[in-house]
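User: I'm putting together notes for a lab meeting next week and I want to include a structural view of one of the chains we've been expressing. I don't have a solved structure, so I'd like a prediction I can at least talk through. The sequence is below, exactly as it appears in our construct file.
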Amino acid sequence: MYVIVVGGGKVGYNLTRHLLAEGREVVLIEKNRARARELQADLGEAITAGDGVRVNVMREAGANRADVVAAVTGDDETNLVVCQVAKTVFLKPRTIARVSDPRNESVFGALGVDLTVSSTRIIDAMIEKQVGADDLVIPLLTLRGGDVEIVEVRVSDESPMLGKPLRDLSLPTGSILIAVFRNEKTMIPKGETVLQKNDELIALVTSQDEAALRRMF
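Assistant: Thanks for the context. Below is the predicted structure for the 217-residue chain, given as structure tokens.
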């Protein structure tokens, strides 16, 4: 799978680093050249300097063969334009847009963006999901299209996954771990991260694979 990420802020950086750790082919496009140099010092050739709304920049990044284009800048309008360029010029990529204002989600969907992710929506969902300790998998957000969810997975004291590094986990095909919450700290999951009792994992999972993920914990 080839992924193009547009936007080199915290979201884009963490997403790119995670995808690289997962062995994905990924390029991050960052408009600010100084910021791009900072990212290159850490992530190397995965970073390219340029404006992701420009067709020539996207073409040079390989958008004609990309499977996914994820626009995660802090500006909703920029993210929408990036997704529209990917759809109308390069036709095939699946598009994902970060949306800062939840009121824009319906607009993005109407204009052809495949999936939208709103941090505000996620936070709201977490507040609304008041669950007991026995609820090990909590749906936080169903992404546009209804086939992908962000879920919270709590590691129980009887989980067979306790003490195991993430690299040894055989996760369902349609799932990706994106964060680990431990002792009020947030960690980006790495292969060597060892699971502990009461760790809370945030995962992106397809609806059909959610049950399989639940059974693991």
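A couple of points you could mention at the meeting. The chain has a mean pLDDT of 81. The domain at 123-216 is CATH 3.30.70.1450 (Alpha-Beta Plaits).

User: Perfect, that's what I needed.
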